[in-house]
Amino acid sequence: MTAHPPHTPPFRDPHLPFAKRIDDLLSRLTLDEKTGFLHQFTPAVERLGISAFRTGQEALHGVAWMGPATVFPQAVGLGATWNTDLVRRIGEAVSKEVRAMRARDDRVGLNIWAPTVNLLRHPLWGRNEEGYSEDPKLTSAIATAYTQGLRGDHPTYWRTAPVLKHWLAHNNETDRATSSSSVRPRVLHEYDLRAFRETVEAGAVAGVMPAYNLVNGRPNHVSPYLREHLRAWTDEELLVCSDAGAPSNLVDHEHYFDTHEEATAASLRAGVDSFTDHGTDSSQMVGRIRKAYEQGLLTEADIDTAVRRQLSVRFRLGEFDPHADPHAGVKDFDTPEHRALAQEAAEQAIVLLRNDGVLPLAPGTRLAVVGLLADECKRDWYSGTLIHRSTPLEGLYERFGAERVEFAEGVDRVRLKTSAGTFLHVLAAEDGEDEVRGAEGALDPALLAGRTDLPPLTTDVTGTEFALIDWGEGVLTLRAPDGRYLSVAEDGYLRASADQPGGWVVQETFRLEPHASGHLLRHIGTGRHVTVAADGVKVADDNAETFELIIAERGEDAVTRVTSEADVVLVVAGNDPHINGRETEDRASLRLPAHQERLLRAARAANPRTVLALVSAYPYAVDTSDLAAVLWTAHGGQAAGTALARVLAGDVSPAGRLPQTWYENDADLPGLLDYDVIGSRQTYLYFEGTPLFPFGHGLSYTSFSYGDLTSRVTEGTLHVSFAITNTGDATADEVAQLYTRAVDPALPRPRRELVAHRRVTLAPGAREELTFEVPLRAFEFWDVTQGRPRLEPGPYELLAGASSEDIRLRTTVLLDGEPGAPRPVLQRGLDGADFDEQSGVEIVDRTRTAGDAVTAGEGGTGQLVYRDCDFGDGVSEVTVTVAGEGTVELSLDGGTVLAVLQVEESESGPYDYTTLGAGIVAEGVHDVHLGLRGPLRLAHVGFSG
Questions:
Q1: 881 - beta bridge partners?
Q2: Tens digits of per-residue pLDDT, 497-513?
Q3: Residue 458 near residue 536 (C-beta atoms within 8 A)
Q4: Which end of the chain is flanked by fewer CB atoms within 10 Å, N or C?
Q5: C-alpha span between 25 and 70 (Å, rounded)
Q6: What are phi and psi of 352, to 5 degrees?
C-alpha cells in the first residue's frame, strides 16, 4: 500500500503570491479565530499550526525593555547626525539584535514600534528625545533610513516590520489623551503629514500607530486621514496598531462614544487593525468586537480587512516560510561591529555650538570635570539595559589619564534631621548582586515593582549623608553613599534601592516643602509625605515628619575647590531622562535647572576657560556669552563618554548639527497646544526672532569653503550642484545643507526650507562636488482655495550653506507653475477650516466620521479671514451651515458688518446642523471676514445671487 504525502494547504505554499496565501488562510479561519487576531496578543491557532503573535516591540534606539542590548544615542541624537547612511546601519544592527534575542526569548517581537516621526515643533514637549527634528524633510530622511535598516534588503522577507509613531500632530503630554490639536489644512499637508508620507512612500514601513490625542476635535484612532491619506500613499497593506489603552480612552476619557462597542467598531472601520488594551488580556477587547458584530456595528468583511493586514506583515516576516526566511539564523548580538557603531553614532551626534579656540584640548591639559552628569550614562524610558557604559568622566580618565583629571560632581551633601533630633540613616545591606531595573526584560516595564529585599531607612544619632540633586521645578533626588537612590516600593517604605531614577511612575523623586521651622518631604510618586515609624521610614497620609536640612557641603563649593588650578574646566550639565520632561510630562521652561546654573556660575567664576557640555534630551536656553566653548549631545547610549572625550581631545572633529531651533528664552515660544506653525511663526521655517542657535547649526575644528553653485530644471526636477573644499588642516565631516524660499509669495511661506542635505568627509585640501535632485513638488504649498497642492510660479531662491542661517551660496531660479486665482465662492463657497488667517478659533470635527468645522475658542469669540473671494457680477444672499448656538458676523475687507446670522438657544447636539441665510450685496473680489460668537460650529459658508 502506497502512502500519499499530506496535502499542503495553499497558505503554506511558498511558490504562491502572499495575497493568494492570505486569501486561503482567511477562508480557513473561523469568525472567532479572526476576532482573536485583533488584539495585540494574538493567540495561536493550533489546528492550523499557526503560532501566537504580538504586535509591538519597542526599539527606538536599540532593543528596549527586553533586557541587555546595544544602546545607541537617543533618537534626537540620531537626528543630530544628519547622516542617513549611519542611521540605516543602526537600523540594521538593531533588527539583527531583535532576531538574535528572539531566538532565545520568544517574548521579543518582530513588529517594531519605531521610529517616532512626530516633528519636534515645540522644545518643551516631554518626548522631544523620541523625535528626529522639527523639520519634516530631515525627519523623513532619518526615519526612512532607520526603517530601511530595520526592514533589511531582501526583496521578499523583512527582518523586522517597523511601525511609525504617533499619527498625528502629537507634541504635548499635558492632557494628551483628551486634548485636540487644531491643525489647519496648510499645516496638515505642508508640515504634519509630510514626515509620515515621505517615509511611507519609501517602502520600508509596515504600519503606523495613532496617537492618544484628537486632531480637529476627532480622536486619531477614528481619523479619516488613515484612509484618505495614509493608505493612499502605498500599495502595501499597512498594519495600524492602537496605542496602549487608547481604544478604551475613546469612551472612558474622551467621551467621544457612549459605549465601548461603538468606539471599537468605529476604530476598526476607520482603519485600526490591532487593539493594544488591557495588557496581555485580550478577552475584553475581543468581547467588545464580538458584541459590536452582534449589534450590527461591524461586518465580517470589516474584520477580514484588519486580519488581512496583520497576516500580510506576518507573511513578510517569514513566519509561514521558516526554511526560506533569510533572517531566521541571525545571531548578531553585542558584536564588536555593533559596539563600534554605537561609538561612531555617539561621536557623530555631538554638536559644537560655540568655541573660542579652547577646543580641541591641547596635549597635557590639566582638566577639572564637574557637573551632575559628569559621571553618568543615563538610560531613558525606551532604552535597553546597558551591557557597556561609558560616562564622560570615565572617557576622560581613559583619554587623558586619571592623574590629569580632577572631579567634583557638585551635589549638595546633606543630612535630614528629624524633630526628635535623630537623622535618617541607611542600614548596611547584606552582600549580594546589584540589581539593575529591567535587566531581566519585561513586556510592560511599567509593571516592574520596586525592591523590598533591602532594609528600610531608619534613624540614628549620626545619620547618613545624602547626595541631593535638584533637577528643577523643586524635584529632587537623594542618593546614598553606595550610589543607590532613595526609592519607595509598593509596601510604602523608603529604601536606598534604585540604581537610577526610572519607571513609568518614578519612585525616586521628592519635594522639600517648607513647614514650620523645617520641611516636609513629599514623595512625588505616591503624593504622600515621609514619616518616621517604629518599623522604619515610610510614606503615609498622616503623621508627616518635619525635617531640618543640614547642609554639609554645597555643590558649588566642591566645584570651586577643583577648578581654580585646572587649565580647563568642563561642566557637564543636562537632564535625567526620567525627570522633568519625558513621556507623560512636558517641561515648564527652557532654562537650565537652578542647581546646575549655580555650578556653572561657580566654575566660570573660578576659571574663565570653562567649557559647557550639555547632555540632554532637548534644547536649553543658556547664556553662553562668557563660556569658552559649548557642546550639546543627546544622551549618547553606551559609548557616550568615550565619544565626548574623543571629540574634546580632537581625535574626532565634531560635525553634528542641531535638528531643531534653540530659542533664547521662553518668551520666544508659542503655547504648547498651539499647532499652527504658520500663524504663530514656529520653528526655523517661520520664526522671525533671533535664536540662541539656529536649526542646522554646528561648528567644526576645521573650515570649509563653498563654491560653484549651479542649477537647472528638467522634467519636474531641479538639479543643483555645488562644491565644498576643506580649507583647514584636519580631516572632518561637513554637513552641506540646501534650502529654498519663495522670493515673492502671494501668502505666507517659510523663511527658508530644507530640501536636501548631505554629510561628507573631507581631508585637508580635499574638494567634493555635491549634486542634488529636488522634485518640483518640494516647492508646492497646499492651496486651500482648491483643496490640493499648487506650485506658485515665480522666482525661488536657492541657499546653500552650513546651517539655516550660515548661507554661503545663493542663486535664484524661475519656476513655472500654476498661477493663483481668486476663490470661486459662487461655485464652491467657503469651508470653515479653509481660512487664510484666524484669531481665537479652533478647528473641530464636523461629524464623528469626517469633515472639519470651526468654532470660537476659549474666549468665546473668534475671527476668520478668507482672502481674495470672487463674487463675480454680484451676490445677494449668504448662507451658513452651523450647529449649536451663537452668531456669525460677515464683513468685507474689514469694513462694516453686512450680515448677522444668529442661532437662538437650541437643545440640538454639536452635529445637528442647520442652514441660515441673510441678504448681502457684493460683487468683485474681496476679503471675507467672519466673526464667531458663542459655542457655535461653522461648517460652510455659501453665496448665491
A1: 915, 940
A2: 999 999 999 999 999 99
A3: yes
A4: N
A5: 37
A6: -90, 110
